[in-house]
């Protein structure tokens, strides 16, 4: 187990193995181009270490509390047309395999691309090496009052407005707000983009909620790690009163997919606390939902009503089915044998046979959802 932030049974088993009592021991390597650290280190802890060395990673998810090994297991991501998910920063792994071997692999080794988005299926990720870069500054602004027709007519332009862009919606009459995160630029922030107007107060992703725990938004530059997540480091964004789902679709189907969901929104909108559109760049990692495809990722934060959410997820999966959707591995979906949608599943299965022949690290979720061979 990592930090326990997944919303389905991916991390559930008869035995839970936690590494949190081990030291994280971060080390700068390769003249400051990489950092290695224990797999259970959180991104928040990593950021504190990187600050001391004036380094940064390329992106962060909406919260810094998750572990690196747990995040890469599920291809956790932030946003940005050119930003790969967080697993794409991994350049080396140390794994204790199911049969007890200590394995070290680096990018370019055989099977490396199969081991990074690992679903917890291969063994214990004890250490991770990540690509890092010199620290950089980010500023963000929020634009309110985006209309659906403007979003649909300008989706690509909107998602290209900054280094990382999110569109938040509650699937109501208006689309919602655009959150633009830019890296150092001297350009003025426009007062209006595509009919949405620049907010002069900080916003919370859920419209109307207190923004005091949101990261600073009023266009001032600050540390990458204080702007890329939506929530401040010292704050716990979720108190458990939510469930999340997310579906990744190829970027070119973005407008049609949003349109399809708009036409059935009465089936799910009442359960939505907040929903978010993000973009994630293509990669070469076998079980990444971005394997060889740039995606638009459609996220839902639901109120906590599991049966109603399952029904809503079923409607959404049906509406998105023409658009080759792949669910976020760590969130709620209803499909069976999702692994079968991945062209590299057979290779991943062979890799698992070699690394965990006795299925020490399997669980019902893996057998059902990934391999389609069991109950779960
Ligand atoms: C409030 C909230 C906000 C979120 N925001 C985002 C977001 O912005 N973007 C996004 O993509 N996702 C987001 N998520 C989902 C979350 O990032 C993923 O579910 C992620 O996998 C959770 O990491 P974790 O450390 O909690 O891992 P867990 O949920 O504990 O485990 C996930 C998987 O990793 C395996 N695992 C963990 N550690 C190890 C290890 N050391 N060795 C081997 N296997 C291991 C587990 O067995 C399991 O298979 C969010 C979740 C929450 C609760």
UniProtKB/TrEMBL annotation:
Record-annotated FAD-binding PCMH-type domain positions: 1-135
This protein's record includes keyword Transferase: no
GO cellular component: membrane
Pfam families membership: ALO, FAD_binding_4
Keywords: FAD, Flavoprotein, Oxidoreductase
Presence of keyword Oxidoreductase: yes
One annotated GO molecular function: L-gulono-1,4-lactone dehydrogenase activity
Protein name (Swiss-Prot/TrEMBL): Xylitol oxidase
Organism: Rhizobium grahamii CCGE 502
């Amino acid at each position: 187990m990592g930090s326990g932030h997944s919303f389905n049974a991916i991390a559930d088993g008869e035995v839970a193995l936690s590494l949190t009592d081990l030291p994280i021991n971060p080390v700068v390597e390769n003249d400051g181009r990489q950092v290695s650290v224990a797999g259970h280190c959180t991104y928040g802890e990593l950021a504190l270490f990187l600050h001391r060395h004036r380094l940064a990673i390329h992106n962060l998810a909406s919260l810094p509390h998750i572990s690196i090994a747990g995040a890469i297991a599920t291809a956790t991501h932030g946003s940005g047309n050119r930003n790969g998910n967080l697993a794409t920063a991994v350049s080396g792994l140390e794994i204790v395999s199911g049969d007890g071997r200590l394995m070290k692999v680096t990018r370019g080794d055989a099977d490396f691309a199969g081991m990074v988005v690992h679903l917890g299926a291969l063994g214990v990720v004890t250490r991770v090496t990540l690509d890092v870069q010199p620290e950089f500054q980010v500023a963000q602004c929020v634009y309110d009052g985006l209309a659906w027709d403007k979003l649909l007519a300008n989706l690509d332009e909107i998602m290209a407005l900054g280094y990382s862009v999110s569109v938040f919606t509650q699937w109501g009459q208006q689309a919602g707000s655009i959150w633009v995160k830019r890296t150092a630029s001297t350009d003025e922030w426009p007062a209006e983009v595509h009919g949405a107007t620049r907010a002069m107060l900080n916003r919370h992703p859920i419209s109307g909620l207190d923004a005091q725990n949101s990261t600073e938004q009023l266009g001032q530059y600050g540390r990458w790690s204080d702007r890329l997540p939506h929530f401040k480091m010292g704050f716990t964004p979720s108190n458990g009163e939510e469930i999340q789902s997310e579906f990744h679709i190829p970027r070119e189907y973005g407008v049609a997919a949003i349109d399809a969901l708009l036409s059935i929104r009465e089936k799910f909108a009442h359960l939505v606390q907040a929903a978010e559109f993000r973009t994630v760049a293509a990669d070469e990692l076998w079980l990444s939902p971005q394997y060889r495809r740039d995606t638009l990722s459609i996220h839902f934060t639901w109120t906590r009503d599991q049966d109603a959410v399952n029904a809503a997820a079923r409607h959404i999966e049906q509406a998105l089915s023409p658009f080759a959707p792949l669910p976020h591995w760590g969130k709620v979906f209803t499909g069976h044998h999702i692994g079968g949608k991945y062209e590299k599943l057979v290779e991943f299965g062979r890799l698992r046979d070699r690394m965990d022949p006795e299925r020490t690290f399997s669980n019902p979720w893996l057998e059902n959802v990934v391999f389609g061979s069991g109950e779960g």
